[in-house]
Design goal:
The protein is an alpha+beta fold. Helices cover 46% and strands 16% of the residues. It contains 24 helices and 15 strands. Strands 6, 7, 8, 10, 13 and 15 form a six-stranded antiparallel beta sheet that branches.
């Protein structure tokens, strides 16, 4: 039995902090959903043999295979339910906080340890990554256990053998967990070389050699991953900006001024309550800073010189040491001051976690389960025969939830969008309702031609799901249009004409007397069009620009293109074009062509003078008629990347 009398005051505080961390991480535990990467890992873990598991893991995920093996056997034994799959990783995260305390207490004192663990318990970054069935919570656990054994081996007074074995085990687990935890293990191992002496040199070098030897079975997989790079990551990650570290710190501290102030005050208060026992350049303070930043810095250099790999998650394995460094100047404080610090940190961090970061709503809903849930609800409401469903999803992702929601439903799965295929599919639909989830933006415009009314719209982190109706409902939802202009508006008396070029030829369509269109011919490669300062027509990076035009060609094989371009000082920032042939439904008549763009990937603050241009490119230099050229700006999902970006 535990002797309560022997539990110190600091340990009571640690138990309280762990309890707070547990409540935060298990809050609404049954309501959690899988993120894309988690569901991908679950589906990838299903294999009929060990060799198949390794092959699938190696070829579909650029990570070591250790966690994939664990997930395979864990879910094989216990099932693939969300709570079951996430449970061990949450426990890993909580144990990480405990060992972070032990390390910080050993390196510095209980006050530094308590401050470090209180932030680990309440910040969104360690909370979220500690709730994912991915190699982050496990990697943090293996990293701190490795460091704990490393610390005891070099600076402890007990048997070296026990901690030598512990270092080998957990350093090896780091190497099989994630390539950045592998890199962190290499950094820790290298740091040990600075503390060698005649008593430990042989054993430590042997320990490091054993870790290297244990990684040999994975070297072929590592070389394979290095040969393919990160494949499509560059398209969505992008090269990091020079202010990447500042951006991470803003994210870490909840993009909140009150948290920034609190952390700043605590840091500077540490200089006032400074420990007189430790020098400013204390070895553990230097180690904490180097360990905290070196791996992310290496990831940054790799990202700007070769392939982008730097993400916030890169900091997962070294985060405890970043926090230890920030609070490392403190001497051990008196009990009332410790309690006050803990109370303020928990109050401010938990408030901003839920009020500012909306963690309990954004993190708990993810695209594929929401698509399945909303589709099932719509079918139950209107009948399966009266509902058409099209969802953007990889194979098996939505189907995973069929068992949870009772039965499968028929839907069009769009993995690699093809406008012509979707156009043909849409033309054959007879249902009165259309559910669309995460489709290409142009597809929504095609749907609205046939289903003009929105009766339901749900959105969250990385998803937006609509339900459209063919018939006007009693209650209709409206998209938030913030700007709308058509070329015909330029001819209205008193209308501001600054957006539209005026020197273009107009021609009556012979087949539609009275209908006047812009006429292009061999002398006009580009139509007159729309031009404006981008900041004048959009409100934020969550704005979608929808452009449409009706185009008619005199010859069958012509392919004019509707273009949306963004320039800044002569430098092209974006060029998007939709080809007429993808939207052509009937010959010898006008066909609507669409092009759209969401500006979430563009840093608008860095391009305040960017200009948007809309026009038709008469690429064949033949006779073409253009009518109803329209530009519309619509406010979209402000939470689409809210788990990582400021929420507006």
């Amino acid at each position: 039995m535990i002797n309560v009398k022997k539990i110190s005051f600091n340990n009571y505080l640690l138990l309280f902090i762990l309890a707070i961390a547990g409540v935060i991480r298990f809050w609404h535990f049954p309501d959690m959903q899988f993120m894309h990467d988690e569901l991908s890992a679950i589906l990838r873990s299903k294999a009929d043999s060990f060799s198949e598991l390794i092959y699938k893991s190696k070829t579909t995920d650029v990570h070591p295979v250790g966690v994939a093996i664990f997930v395979h056997y864990w879910t094989f034994i216990f099932g693939t339910g969300t709570m079951i799959a996430k449970f061990p990783f949450i426990i890993f995260g909580l144990i990480s906080i405990y060992y972070s305390y032990k390390i910080a207490e050993n390196w510095f004192n209980p006050t530094v340890a308590i401050l470090t663990c209180t932030f680990l318990a309440t910040l969104q970054f360690p909370t979220m990554y500690g709730q994912l069935e991915r190699p982050y919570a496990s990697g943090m656990l293996f990293s701190v256990l490795m460091v704990w054994n490393w610390t005891q081996f070099f600076f402890g007074e007990k048997s070296k053998i026990k901690y030598a074995v512990g270092f080998i085990v957990f350093a090896s687990m780091c190497t099989y967990n994630h390539y950045f935890s592998l890199l962190f293990a290499g950094l820790v191992g290298t740091t040990g070389l600075f503390f060698l002496n005649k008593e430990n040199v042989k054993m430590y070098l042997l320990m490091c050699l054993v870790v290297v030897l244990l990684f040999i079975p994975h070297i072929s997989i590592l070389l394979f991953h290095l040969s393919i790079g990160s494949e499509g990551e560059e398209s969505w990650l992008g090269k990091p900006q020079p202010d990447w570290l500042l951006t991470f710190l803003k994210y870490l501290f909840h993009y909140s001024a009150i948290v920034y102030i609190m952390v700043g005050l605590i840091f500077f208060a540490g200089l006032y309550f400074r420990s007189k026992e430790k020098k400013v350049l204390d070895k553990f303070r230097i180690i904490a800073l180097v360990w905290a930043l070196l791996v992310p810095c290496l990831a940054y250099l790799y990202s700007i010189t070769k392939t982008p790999v730097l993400q916030f998650s890169t900091f997962t394995f070294s985060l405890p040491f970043l926090l230890m460094f920030i609070f490392s100047f403190y001497a051990d404080l008196k009990k009332p001051i410790k309690i006050s610090f803990i109370a303020v940190i928990i109050l401010i961090n938990t408030y901003t976690l839920y009020a500012n970061r909306k963690h309990d709503t954004l993190f708990y809903k993810h695209p594929y389960e929401e698509m399945a849930r909303i589709s099932e609800q719509t079918i139950n409401e209107f009948g399966e025969k009266n509902v058409t469903i099209a969802l953007s999803a990889m194979e098996g992702f939505v189907d995973f939830y069929f068992e949870k929601y009772g039965k499968p439903f028929s839907y069009l799965r769009i993995d690699k969008p093809n406008t012509q295929v979707f156009f043909s599919y849409l033309e054959n639909q007879k249902a009165d309702y259309f559910v669309a989830g995460n489709l290409p933006l142009e597809f929504y415009q095609l749907i609205k031609e046939r289903y003009p009314y929105i009766i339901k719209k749900e959105e969250g982190f990385t998803y937006t799901v609509y339900c459209f109706s063919r018939n006007k409902p009693e209650v209709e939802l409206q998209d938030g249009v913030v700007f709308s202009e058509t070329q015909q508006d330029a001819h209205i008396p008193g209308h501001k004409k600054g957006y539209w070029e005026e020197n273009y030829a107009m021609q009556e369509d012979p087949s539609n007397p009275g209908e006047i269109s812009m006429a292009l011919d061999s002398s006009k490669e580009y139509s007159a069009g729309f031009s404006a300062k981008l900041s004048d027509i959009i409100r934020s990076k969550h704005t979608i620009i929808n452009v449409s035009a009706k185009i008619k060609t005199g010859e069958q094989n012509l392919n004019p293109t509707l273009v949306l371009s963004i320039d800044d000082g002569g430098k092209s920032l974006l060029w998007r074009g939709s080809e007429y042939r993808d939207y052509k439904l009937n010959e010898n008549t006008f066909n609507s062509v669409y092009v759209s763009n969401l500006f979430s990937g563009m840093d608008l603050e860095k391009h305040p003078n960017a200009t948007i241009k809309i026009y038709v490119w008469n690429r064949d230099k033949k006779d073409v008629l253009v009518n109803d050229l329209k530009v519309e700006a619509v406010e979209s999902n402000p939470q689409i990347y809210g788990l990582y970006e400021p929420i507006e």
